[in-house]
Amino acid sequence: MEASMKKICLLGFVAALVIAGLGEVNGAGECGKANPDMEAFKLAPCASAAQDEQASVSGSCCAAVKKLGQNPRCLCAVMLSNTAKSSGVKPEIAMTIPKRCNIVDRPVGYQCGAYTLP
Fold it and tell me: Where is the Bifunctional inhibitor/plant lipid transfer protein/seed storage helical domain (predicted)?
């Protein structure tokens, strides 16, 4: 009896995991399989530039923005992520970084929440 109860509990646990996993579609987010909050850590070199429009933008910041900017939806999600917000990023200033980096193929005019990329 005890062994069958353990099996029922195990089956219930597995069923709960499967059901929880059904709500998540891998690869369907703004950044594919990556979480925008985790991707935000890649923009750490941009911290001061995302808080002050007069701050210089480092080469490592521009490289990270250029890479993430290949997918404008991901870049937008990262700039508006909880990680970015809790780090003091000001979205209206962060949106200016691709232009400040002179990224030629940046998504000019891309609507990112309430902001537009210049």
Answer: 40-108
